[in-house]
Amino acid sequence: MAATASEQERRVLEAVPSGLYIGGEWRDATGGGRLGVEDPSTGETIHEIADGQAQDADAALAAAHEAFRTWRHTPPRERSDVLRRAYDLITERTDDLALLMTLEMGKPIAESKAEIAYGANFLRWYAEEAVRIDGRFTPNETGVGRVLTMRQPVGPCVFITPWNFPLAMGTRKIGPALAAGCTVVVKPAKQTPLSMLALAQVLEEAGLPGGVVNVLTAKSSGEVMEPLIKDPRTRKLSFTGSTEVGRKLMEQASEQVLRVSMELGGNAPFLVFADADLDKVVEGALVAKMRNGGEACTSANRFHVHESIAGAFAEKLAAAIGDLKVGRGTEPDVKVGPLIDESQRETVEELVDDATSKGARVATGGSRLDGGGYFFQPTVLADVPDDARLLREEIFGPVAPITTFSSDEEAVQKANATEYGLVAYVYTQDVDRAFRVIEELETGMVGFNQGMVSNAGAPFGGVKQSGFGREGGPEGLHEYLETKYVAMNVGVPPT
User: Fold this and answer.
1) Which burial class, exposed, middle or buried, applies to 251 when counting CB atoms under 10 A from its CB (0-12, 13-18, 19+)?
2) What pLDDT score was predicted for residue 2?
3) Interior/surface letters 387-413, b for 16+ CB within 10 angstroms, e for the rest
4) Domain limits at 244?
5) Which are the catalytic amino acids?
6) How far apart are CA 486 and CA 482, in angstroms?
7) Residue 327 lies in a domain
8) Last residue of a domain, one of 263, 287, 302
9) Do the Cβ atoms of 16 and 197 come closer than 8 Å?
10) How many CA atoms lie within 13 A of 167 on its CB side?
């Protein structure tokens, strides 16, 4: 641990278990291997945890499989009460959990607190949904007999969560799974496992029976996850991460014909029409682009702006982004933290260099910040040419590229010119235009005159190569339920 760590940081880190959470017990990894966790603002190791192996993964799935026998039959109100208690505990511990998240992921404390609130709300939302799982009972189409349907839990689930939202991407999956009566093995990203381990502690304290949620930390996701995905005891796979990895996981899942949910890459267009209120646009752009330092699948990746206002927009956005304070997330007034690691910083740097070599103009920022940690300047690029790589590839960093369009049709064409389809943002004061455009956009979500779409009560997910399945809202619960139909020769009218 860094010698400069505060007493609060030490206390928070020391409270995190260093073992695997399997069957309601904390245990060392097979072979005793360890995995170091870095603070991306310094590059220093702040904690060491268990490096799980294939044998540990098998034990975790066995625990989930055994626990499913009883958890599926646990009364919905009891499942609801556990989720609600967990929500209350997380909310009470916001300060400590936010600091832990900032230390392992780098985002500013204010953003970590916002994620704690967002992530906890999935537990509250699904605590309320757990008692509302229903079916139907109706006459069949001939009137001779009845149709009965019931909803039943899918079974043991395997979750793989990303590093950019280390708590919320877990609760967004765990909440509906537990509400439905499923059990879970979750593998958090190796860069940010501490928040998930802390969540396991909270769930245990909330009264969750052992084996219902199991947390497996490991350096090599493939070595521990592939056997689980191909194991017949697993009934569902949910993954949040890159499209490239998602394709490989779907191939593995096909052997068992698993239920699969995939929340994959994004290349979000941000459309600004000539009649838009530029001050409100810039306000929304800061949220859509700079939330989480741009390390979000929903991050605005391409700013398509009407040619008549592109210059003014670039100037205003550059001024706003250029004023954002960069630094360690624990420091006062910091708005932009480090990128997750050096590899990600190099990727962002390469994309910016490619764009500028092809004629893009740097309106602000444009380069890495040296001196420790993985920092990159908040950047606005104007006059970005169509062949720049960052218009096709997910940036995952604090870089806003601006291009222009001259008509509504061209705006839609440019927005849809990508293999991805997660989210789009549309800014215009013309509601008719807005809905003409929205209906043509090939995305699963749209922010209309706002830069934030995430909400526990709404279905989050994409189309095309951004994946399939939905998380959040009633739709998120359905992902963990099977429908069973019973044909009944009852209620037959008398002859």
Assistant:
1) exposed
2) 40
3) ebebbbbbbbbbbbbbbbbeebeebbe
4) 7-263
5) 263, 297
6) 13
7) yes
8) 263
9) yes
10) 36
| 487-to-137, 148, 275, 491 alpha-carbon distances in Å | 10, 7, 57, 12
Q: What is the tens place of the pLDDT at every residue in 26-60?
A: 999 999 999 999 999 999 999 999 999 999 999 99
Mean pLDDT for the chain overall = 96
Q: Which residues pair with 381 in a beta bridge?
A: 362, 401
Are 116 and 101 contacting, i.e. CB atoms less than 8 angstroms apart?
A: yes
pTM: 0.95
Half-sphere exposure of 455 (CA within 13 A, CB side): 12
Using an 8 Å Cβ cutoff, are 441 and 412 in contact? yes
What separation, in Å, do the N-terminal and C-terminal C-alpha atoms of the chain show? Answer: 82
Return the closest-CA partner of residue 101 out of 180, 31, 197.
197
* Percentage above 90 pLDDT, the chain: 95
Grouped pLDDT means (10 residues each) for the chain, 495 residues: 68 96 97 96 97 97 98 98 98 98 98 98 98 94 92 98 98 98 98 98 98 97 94 98 96 96 97 98 98 97 98 98 97 97 97 98 96 95 97 97 98 98 98 98 98 96 97 97 94 69
Pair (243, 274) in one structural domain: no
* Pair 341, 452 in one domain: yes
Same domain? For 317 and 388 the reply is yes
Q: Do residues 153 and 293 share a domain?
A: no
For 114-155, where are the E strands, in sequence order?
Answer: 136-139, 146-153
Residue at a domain's end among 211, 232, 263: 263
DSSP string, 169-193: HHHHHHHHHHHHT--EEEE--TTS-
Residue 165 domain-assigned (yes or no): yes
Please report the DSSP string for 286-350 in residue order.
HHHHHGGGG-STTSEEEEEEETTTHHHHHHHHHHHHHT--BS-TTSTT--B---SSHHHHHHHHH
- Both tokens of residue 403? 């291009």
| Residue 491 lies inside a defined structural domain of this protein | no
Residue 143: CB atoms within 10 Å: 10
